[in-house]
Design brief:
Elements: E1 2-4, H1 12-34, H2 44-47, H3 56-59, H4 61-68, E2 72-76, H5 80-92, E3 99-103, H6 108-123, E4 128-133, H7 140-156, E5 164-169, H8 173-181, E6 184-188, H9 201-209, H10 214-228, H11 237-250, E7 255-260, H12 266-280, E8 288-293, H13 302-307, E9 312-319, H14 344-361, E10 366-371, H15 376-397, H16 408-418
Parallel strand pairs: 2-3, 2-4, 4-5, 5-6, 7-8, 7-9, 9-10
Antiparallel strand pairs: 1-10
Helix pairs in contact: 1-11, 5-12, 6-7, 10-15, 11-15, 12-15
């Protein structure tokens, strides 16, 4: 993972002043770790260091063996519980054998497609499992989706309840029902918000089931974790970027465009958007995260980015890896004859470089992250990088990144109107 911050257009002296507050924050966290405290919010970042020696994982070994042998999996969840798993899955999909269908809504089309997916697997004598994720055990959309999908599995499989794995908080309503129905059950920690729970035991377990090499994923995350708590503005890129983003915020530059080069990074972009929105959108503060995609949004959004309000900060995320590198041959159009024999990845790289050059000429603030390969270490690195970045930004904004109380506003209205 390469990072270029030269064009973020932030004053060095200002950045150094902002960073001093983060130095204090790093000291606070290190002091707590040195005292072997584990009950502070940021402790989850360091829990991955215990991943390889987690004794609880052995408790679920029989469950793991059962689900590991399934041909495909339907994962039902919404928000952080679903987005982070889909981010990693789609990033690694070209290298994974197991097929996964994500149900992240209870709209008619998603449900119809999920039922068709399950039915097709059973018609082809393939084993399919259901993983239901709800931290509270009360998530409305997730429970509705599960109810419909469970009924379909029940029609197709006489041993249907042995194909259901529930991931929820201990003693949640869903946990209690799971015990009654005989579903497999894994507990989620109450202490970590779903969007930050990437490297939790439960998520690592699910990622193992879908064939992700979690050892390499953790290796990448640990590498970034070590960098993230260095008190050196030149060695700690997360420190520098967080401070630079905050300096833009102080000038009322609060629109933040996540500009993504590849569909393999799409769901990562959606998770990162959620991470920013739910963690920082509090007390009338925060960034407004956009997610844009090459090449289509160059033809629909670039006009705004280049000539609209001058307060849009961009994070380009570019993928070098080309899994399917199509060659352009037998060109009919005179205007593109010079592209004969060129690889599609080569052309897209030139398009990206051209857009980057246009930003430089227009003095538009941006920084870039270049991902080398579609592998576990790269996705582990960028996930960890972004979590620390957002936590640092929350410290600078003087808000709690781990809560999301405002979502109760709409949830209470739904419960009232549905009489549930």
């Amino acid at each position: 993972m390469e990072i270029n911050i030269d064009s973020i257009l932030a004053d060095r002296k200002e950045i150094e002043e902002i960073t001093s507050d983060l130095f204090d924050y790093i000291d606070e966290i290190k002091n707590k770790l040195n005292k072997q405290q584990i009950n502070f919010p940021e402790a989850f970042l360091f829990s991955i260091q215990e991943y390889f020696t987690s004794s609880n994982f052995n408790e679920y070994k029989s469950i793991f063996e059962k689900y590991k042998n399934l041909d495909s999996v339907v994962i039902i969840g919404i928000g952080g519980s679903n987005l982070i798993l889909s981010s990693i899955y789609y990033f690694l999909k070209p290298h994974l054998k197991k097929e996964v269908f994500f149900v992240d809504d209870c709209d008619n089309l998603t449900i119809k497609e999920s039922l068709a997916f399950i039915e097709d697997k059973y018609l082809n004598n393939q084993k399919t499992g259901i993983i239901l994720i709800s931290k509270s055990g009360k998530t409305l959309e997730t429970l509705i989706s599960f109810q419909i999908i469970k009924n379909k599995i029940k029609e197709l499989d006489k041993d249907w309840n042995s194909k259901i794995l529930v991931v929820t908080e201990e003693n949640s309503p869903l946990a209690e029902i799971s015990k009654i129905e005989g579903y497999d059950l894994i507990n989620l920690s109450k202490e970590i918000s779903g969007r930050f729970a990437i490297f939790s035991q439960a998520n690592i377990f699910i990622l193992k089931i879908i064939d992700v090499d979690t050892d390499k994923l953790i290796k990448g995350a640990l590498e970034i974790l070590q960098e993230g708590f260095l008190k050196d503005i030149d060695s700690n890129r997360i420190l520098l970027i967080s401070s630079a983003i905050y300096s833009h915020f102080l000038k009322n530059n609060f629109i933040y465009n996540i500009f993504i080069s590849s569909p393999f990074i799409k769901y990562f972009g959606y998770w990162y958007r959620q991470l920013i929105a739910e963690s920082l959108g509090k007390d009338k503060k925060g960034l407004v995260p956009l997610v844009s995609f090459f090449n289509k949004d160059l033809h629909s959004m670039y006009q705004l980015f280049a000539s609209g309000p001058g307060y849009i900060l961009t994070n380009f995320i570019f993928l070098k890896d080309s899994v399917f590198n199509q060659t352009i041959n037998n060109i009919d159009f005179e205007s593109i004859k010079t592209l004969e024999g060129k690889k599609l990845q080569e052309i897209n790289t030139i398009i990206y470089a051209s857009v980057r050059e246009s930003y430089l000429k227009l003095n538009l603030p941006f920084y870039e992250i270049v991902l080398e390969k579609l592998n576990e270490e790269e996705i582990g690195k960028i996930i960890q990088f972004k979590m620390i970045e957002v936590i640092f930004l929350a410290r600078l904004l003087k808000i709690n990144p781990f809560s999301q109380e405002a979502v109760e506003y709409y949830k209470s209205e739904i419960r009232k109107n549905l009489k549930i």
